[in-house]
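F.,

This is the one I mentioned.
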């Protein structure tokens, strides 16, 4: 999602999300935290959105309480800074149940295939291998994901934000062909927490496009810049410093990261 038209649509969506009247319509019950399906209306415009109140966040042993909503907004900020538009418009605001994250709802295309289990030992053309998956007590299959430029961009973004929970259900291919990633509450930890299904490019050289984006992002994250100031209101100083270091490491190595071996590489459940 690039260009002046896309930028203007994002600004309009942000205004709607931040200033509109939020009405709860239902709840996404399979989520581990409170996730409310809402409508938001402002100056004659209306859209569907997701509202995740801070009060509904489940405590985590490795993340400070009450910080997941801010991390979701920080992920949107980083996505916008790359120019890739991989995270739906997201704001932090007051709602019916207090402060929370509000994000534009994206209706995924059910026909889009991004992940698969195959019986072969190697991924076929157009696919990248993640690794073996137990599909029955006595049977494994090869987990693969699409060899897609948009998925590859998302893998780079996940490495930048240190996403600890990139599941299949967090990938939303829109009907217009654009790919979105959602659920970034467990990101930006100072320790290596990268857990993802997008390991197909592990160890491979970054694309020329990604190298350029990371160089630009390095500059935008410098202390005192507008992006750095916005992130300072969402993350701790140590988390922002760790973010800068991850960008620096990616630029220095020029390669996609590989699993550290100190943390489960694939989230569970993976969907």
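My design for it:
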């Amino acid at each position: 999602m690039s260009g002046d038209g896309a930028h203007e649509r994002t600004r309009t969506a942000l205004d709607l999300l931040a200033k509109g009247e939020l009405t709860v319509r239902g709840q996404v019950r399979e989520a581990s935290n409170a996730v409310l399906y809402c409508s938001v209306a402002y100056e004659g415009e209306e859209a569907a959105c997701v509202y995740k109140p801070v009060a509904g966040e489940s405590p985590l042993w490795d993340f400070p309480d009450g910080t997941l909503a801010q991390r979701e907004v920080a992920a949107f900020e980083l996505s916008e800074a790359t120019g890739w538009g991989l995270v739906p418009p997201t704001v932090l605001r007051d709602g019916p149940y207090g402060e929370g994250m509000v994000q534009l709802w994206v209706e995924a295309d059910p026909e889009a295939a991004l992940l698969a289990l195959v019986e072969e030992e190697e991924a076929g053309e157009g696919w990248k291998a993640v690794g073996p998956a137990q599909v029955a007590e006595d049977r494994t299959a090869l987990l693969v994901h699409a060899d897609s430029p948009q998925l590859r961009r998302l893998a780079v973004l996940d490495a930048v934000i240190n996403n600890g929970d990139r599941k299949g259900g967090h990938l939303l291919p829109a009907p217009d062909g654009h790919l979105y990633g959602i659920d970034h509450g467990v990101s930006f930890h100072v320790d290596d927490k990268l857990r993802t299904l997008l390991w197909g490019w592990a160890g491979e050289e970054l694309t020329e496009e990604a190298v350029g984006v990371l160089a630009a992002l390095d500059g935008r994250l410098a202390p005192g810049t507008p992006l750095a100031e916005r992130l300072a209101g969402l993350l701790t100083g140590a988390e922002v410093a760790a973010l800068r270091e991850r960008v620096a490491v990616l630029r220095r190595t020029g390669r996609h990261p590989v699993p550290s071996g100190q943390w489960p590489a694939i989230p569970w459940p993976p969907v």
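DSSP finds six helices and ten strands in the chain.

Talk soon.
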